[in-house]
Amino acid sequence: MQTIYRLKANELDLNFLEGLKATFQGKEIEIVVYEVDETAYLLSSEANKQRLLKAIENVSKDRNLIEVNLEELNVE
Prior knowledge:
Layout: H1 14-23, H2 38-42, H3 46-60
């Protein structure tokens, strides 16, 4: 069985470890840790890459921007 957990380092706690132990109870496991490179992931698809590059161009030229008034948002 293979399971991938994706979380922030500060989310590693005793509950996570206990859940991991319960999931793989009695089995030998291998833990590999690597930092996720969001940029590489986002650029891995050609279509997504083109959308991101277009968005960067739009921001640099002040085109197609949406302004949000944070005071009008009902955020708690």
